[in-house]
Fold each of these.
Amino acid sequence: MMHWKLSPDVTIDYPLDDLALHADGFVYCIKTPSGQLYIGKKWTHAKRGRDIIESDWKRYVSSCQQIKADIKANGKEGYEFVIICICETRSETNYREVQYQFVHDVLNTRTASGERLYINGNIASRWFVAPAHHSPETRKRMSMAKRMMTTETRKRMSAAKTGKPLSDEHKRRISETQRKRAAAKREK
């Protein structure tokens, strides 16, 4: 039995099994048993040499490594696989996937408890999840760790950076920091 279902917003006048005869791809949303979501795309055709054949879309679960690993370990039970948009061309499939990901703000949307709602880690391998902000306690521990660094470790880190060009912005910030330190020493 195929696990794909159509969203109530999507209507077709042919059996879902015949999707490859009518469309080049689709955009889907997967809901995990924990309630997290994933938006992705799948093409219904694949090229094998000069031949164009139907892809594995009927068995396909996701390109998301986290979802694939979880399904491999625990099975598909509890997952919902919903087709949210059917596309006539590959370029439309690509466009619609990115459009849905931006509309649903997959990189930033949070649940009431503060967890990320969407599993997506990027959009089109171009926009990525922003790094988590560190709490004051974490910043304090990081500062302490840096202060307790050995001379040997500092030398190794310096050697790793030696010879790498710095951007003008980076040079400006270094200069500004050195001026502030010099001013602070003069005040003491």
Amino acid sequence: MTATTGEDEDGTGPATRPASGEHPPTRRDRPYTLLGPDGRPYLSETPGTLAGHRRGRLYGRLDCPSARRAIAAGGYVRHRVFFADEPAAIAAGYRPCAVCLPAAYRRWKASSRFPASASEETVVTPSRTPFTATAAAGSGRGRSPLIRGAEATAYGPLPVPAPHTGAEVAALVGLLAAQRPRVRTVVLGHSRDAASRAAAEAFAGAFAEAWSERADPEHREAREGSGGDAVLAVVDWPERAASWLRAARRFTAPAPDAWVVAAAPLGWAQLARRLAQSTDWDPARTFGFASLAEPRAIALAGPDVLDGVRGAAAGGGTWAVRGGWLTTDPAGPLLRRRPKGPGSEEGVRYRP
């Protein structure tokens, strides 16, 4: 008989200590659970060389001081994962830890400031960036991240959301379907204008339909664990609020696989500031409608705040925020032409 003490630091799953009179289990009796390049867990006879945080989408050394502090404080372990090597972590969509892998982090940060491919159109956001997550952390958590009137006025009136399109909804659902690890549950957020509300309702229906049609065992298990709901919560917010803290907490409380947003740019920029300062929200797991692809809103929120957010355009293409750059791909991530070769036909396939 054994007693559970938590998770091993080397990826063996729940750690156990022997009860009185028993011999401790040997390593070969317990295979290691690692994440592969496709983001799926698998059993290994050898331990991982790197650890990661599933929600933060970052990886680092097994002895990372930041991770050890978080574990000692009673957190982190539930979302900890392990990798065989660095290429596996990168392929799974994780980025280097800034604390224990500073050189790798600097290289990653530098590379993320440029478009991913030459086919993408790049839009540079305005140079004024009055707020960033780094600035907020440096000034102390007591400082309010509210956008002041003078800041908003400096960028001029922001556009109101346009009605969504069917291609936009389909592209957004496709973006989520292409993610690894798989996105099975989302929290849906929207502002209170009619266009954003309608877009959120359209996405909820399309995502729930796609979600219910999946039949793989892991998906069935996730569906049962969430009570059968693909959308864990729907959160709305006004364009102006006293502190935005309540909306931010409601938005992050269910701990979904991803967040989806349909909103007016100014309100979203304000909420994103609060999310960055007061919650463990991850912009890299956030997807939005075309209304969020507004350079001035990105500048208002701060490029560090929205870095990693992706979304769909009205015509079915996609956009992404990378290090303060807004990049767009008219073809979208779902469709890519496969070159015609000997004995094959030109076709279209999903981009991984």
Amino acid sequence: MAKVTFDDELDATMRELEADKNSMFMNLKHYHRDENLEIKMLRREQIYPNPINEPYMQDVTEEQIRFLYDNIKQNGLMHNLVVLDDLKGRYRLISGEKRWTAIQKMSKEEYEDKFPNGIACKVIRPDIEFTNDDEWRILLECNVLVASAKPDKKQMQDLIALYDRMGSGKEEIVNYLKDQIGLSKLTIERTYGVATAIPELRELEEKGIVNTTAMRVLCQGDKKNGLEEIQRECCRMIKEEYEGQVINEPLAAEIKKACTGIVKGRETESKTCRAVRAEISKKITKGLNIIINYKDKDIAAMKELEKTVCIKELEDAQRKIGEAIKKFQTGTETKEK
């Protein structure tokens, strides 16, 4: 097999860049403009791992690294590393840490034979607006959207959660990823549900207390319709009433139904109380206006009128609140029966 030269690597890199011009990676915000992205040949000691990537590297096996080592040793680096210029003379990895780890295992002779001019890297030079979220987003997008392999489930969930936190809507995220990755809309919608679940629920899944199919049940719904509050109630019920059990799909459906009823009941109670409060406020304001505009400016008469109005409104308020509570309790008892 012919030896891959520097010119060959550079030509391959430029072809890859040309093909990437319309990709999300090349069009993301200002830090992906052409003037902020360049190809550099870097020594392996100039590059260092990214702490953000550490959780995603924990499941990488020695066999995977050995496979990459053998592949790179035989064929060279088929895809460039993506690095971030830290503005201190070194470069932090954004994409390609497994490949870089494999290269690190090469002997000095093997490395110099395969990379005599250094490693071809796409270098991102951030401007003053570059944030930690921006870096995390680029790292995840490189791994999920640009990588040719099937996207890692955890990284895809974290990318969706990041999009959600940055203000993108569900439909926008789902349709965008469907076009970029090629997975079905249903698959991405399910992943979206898990990714945007409250942290307590995701923790239960990670601990194996809630299985995958149960998680889908508990994540169905819309935040606008109180999904987060329902999930919090589900977490409470699972911890208090189902300790030691693994929550499967049928059990999750029962728990969610019960918790939805509890949350909706609270909402009904809150709406009733708000309505009573608004009515009381309106009547008190009317009573105070009568006092203020009382034609007879006799102070004693005004005070007596004020006392009468306040006592009446207080009695009305107590009566209406009592009626509201009784109505709510009766409705709850009827549902339980």
